[in-house]
Specification:
2 copies of one chain form a homodimer. A 6-stranded parallel sheet of chain A has the order 2-1-3-4-5-11, with helices on both faces. In chain A, strand 1, helix 5 and strand 2 form a beta-alpha-beta unit. The termini of chain A are far apart. About 1% of the residues of chain A have low confidence. Chain A is elongated, with a radius of gyration of 27 Å. The first copy, chain A, is built from 13 helices and 12 strands. Chain A is α/β, with parallel strands linked by helices. Chain B binds a DNA duplex (16 and 16 nucleotides) through helix 2 and helix 4.
Chain lengths: 360, 360
DNA sequence: TTGAAAGCGATACCAA
DNA sequence: TTGGTATCGCTTTCAA
């Protein structure tokens, strides 16, 4: 009876071909094979062909671990994101890969699920692979995480948020300002009873909330009863739930700013259920500009952020550093800003806006 | 003028501490340090403390590449997915990580964006890291990809779909059957003019389409003008566009089965825009059971698949094999099936269903 | 253009 | 319980 078995690296039978196997097969030395693969132009036509043939015959695939160890160039960039479920990080990751992969770099993604503890562990694990750079979302790492990153000796780019005290490089936006801007936008449309819904309360959502509060204070508006907060991860359904809470307390609420688009869509659905008209009875504005914002009925106003740009800049800057033998770039911090996208869910006839402002 | 520089592995200054550095610092041999870290109980209390102190002092982080090379155990599992944008693969990836990470395995994710070519390249790259197993979504790899995977010598799990000719292990579901089941479900609700919308047309979507066609044929229904197909990647907006196409051709279409939930949600919005009532005028059923299906108005009926289970089984089976010294498990193929979730978008009063069936 | 020797940072195996 | 030695697969000098 023959037991089927695997012959992978961790097992003993039929091991994978190595550089030496190829060399033997082609009748040359291992160094020559290495050259033929990495700098074909340095090897004679004749040998190159024999080597190529041997490579194909033996299904040779270079052992990246060995080559990284020998060359002390891992060609790995570590990327840490707080979530994948969240539509926000897809574009961003895609942008990073689009820059890094063609340049021969492998991206090692670690999803830390909004947990500081997981983040610390992920950083440790990542550093074990000796990445040539690290891109990490957010600026709120624990002291230990910051220590690890600083000691790593490789460039670190913090993205998505902006800070006075970056670990190293930083590209992001001011979420407090963005939150405040959303409120002011609604104010200018004539709204006075402006609610804020927020869930998960990660650091950036908290800053948007702070921005909301600051703007309300500055505008002399009371936020009494208008804020609904939920520590659990946000989803579309929760938007409805949180809005219901606010409605119960402040039936004449006139606008809602949510910490993300999911909640905003949830509000839209909740309004539909209750026969509340958007934007006529209640205006809604979200955050992030996910795909569905332009598809929903009505279309969703939102605060748009430069996710692609943040990913691209982070990746390109890293390439520059790695290729430029480690010099820090001239620009080490960028504020990419944000913009308010005014769509159906906050559309207001001019006269109506005036009237609202008067009667408020 | 001092130029700031990085001291990462690829540069020469202040290199990261190695095992030997720690050994020197603690006054022991490198082997002892290795032991103290991997099997602390095999080292005397005294030395262990000195070593721990040195580790902390030097910020030592083991070089995973070196240890993998020496031990021929990389503790890496490669995972290939066709998309991340797609809500479908989040749960699945999460499930895989939840099993693998606690077991000390690192997951190397490769997003191949529904491209066979990228998939081939990704497999090559992945194999360069000598993963101990590979989990790949789908059963439609190119011949070259299949070759690479077979020759890799490591267990390969194909997920999400099911096939008579698996590369190795296989857990998935029959998408043709699922597509047919959706149609039959609508038929039983009394629908006769059943449309199908499909985009991207990846292999699994194509099978669902084939299932639709088969069921329509078997039920003696014509699909003339009822199918709208779009090769571009699907999104919510496109659901509306495709439905509009069908409406133009078959104004009295009574039900829509879409190849995924995004399109279904798009149909919902399009209906809202046109004042078409769902489910009264048109019934809608999607595929995948993404989060928003329970949040929308009306809630979306859909075909639910066992994404979590597929990820979990794949990961657990791999652990079993790797730990069980390479023996293939007893079960090498699982059909996880699917289920029809009947929600608001297909709700029908019994009498109405009968009437429909009669007048059709 | 090609090859020999040394070494990357760790572990396995065998002695002490 | 501790350490010496060979080795993992490849690249980097440096010589031929």
């Amino acid at each position: 009876m023959k037991e089927p078995r695997y012959s992978g690296v961790n097992l003993n039978s039929k091991r994978r071909a190595t550089l030496s196997d190829v060399a033997r097969r082609a009748g040359v030395s291992p160094v020559t094979v290495s050259r033929a693969l990495r700098h074909p132009e340095m090897v004679s036509e004749d040998l190159r062909q024999r080597i190529d043939a041997a490579v194909r015959l033996l299904n040779y695939i270079p052992n990246h671990l060995a080559s990284a160890l020998a060359s002390t160039r891992t060609q790995i960039v570590g990327v840490i994101v707080p979530s994948l479920t969240n539509g926000v990080f897809d574009d961003y990751l895609g942008a990073i890969q689009d820059v890094l992969n063609p340049a021969g770099f492998q991206v090692l993604v670690s999803n830390v699920r909004y947990s500081d503890q997981l983040e610390e562990k992920a950083i440790q694990t990542l550093l074990g692979y000796h990445p040539e750079a690290i891109i990490i979302a957010g600026v709120d790492q624990t002291e230990r995480s910051r220590d690890l990153l600083r000691h790593s000796g490789v460039p670190v780019v913090q993205t998505m948020d902006i800070t006075d005290d970056p670990i190293d490089l930083n590209i992001g936006l001011d979420h407090t300002a963005a939150g405040a801007a959303a409120v002011r936008y609604l104010y200018e449309q004539g709204h006075r009873k402006i609610a804020h819904l927020t869930a998960r309360a990660d650091p950036r959502a908290r800053r948007r909330h702070a921005g909301y509060q600051r703007a309300m204070d500055e505008l002399g508006l009371s936020s009494e009863g208008l804020v609904a907060l939920q520590p659990r991860p946000s989803d579309i359904e929760m938007g409805g739930t949180l809005f219901a809470e606010v409605l119960a307390r402040v039936p004449d609420v006139s606008a809602v700013f949510t910490c993300n688009d999911d909640l905003a869509l949830g509000v839209l659905f909740e309004c539909q259920r209750r026969g509340i008209r958007v934007p006529d009875d209640v205006a809604v504005i979200g955050f992030n500009d996910l795909d569905f914002c332009v598809a929903s009925v009505p279309t969703l106003s939102t605060v748009s952020t430069e996710r692609l740009k943040m990913g691209t800049w982070a990746a390109e800057t890293i390439l520059e550093i790695v290729r430029g033998s480690g010099k820090r770039p001239a620009k080490t911090q960028i504020d990419v800003g944000f913009s308010i996208l005014s769509r159906g869910s906050t559309a207001v006839a001019a006269t109506k806006a005036e009237k609202r402002a008067r009667t408020a």
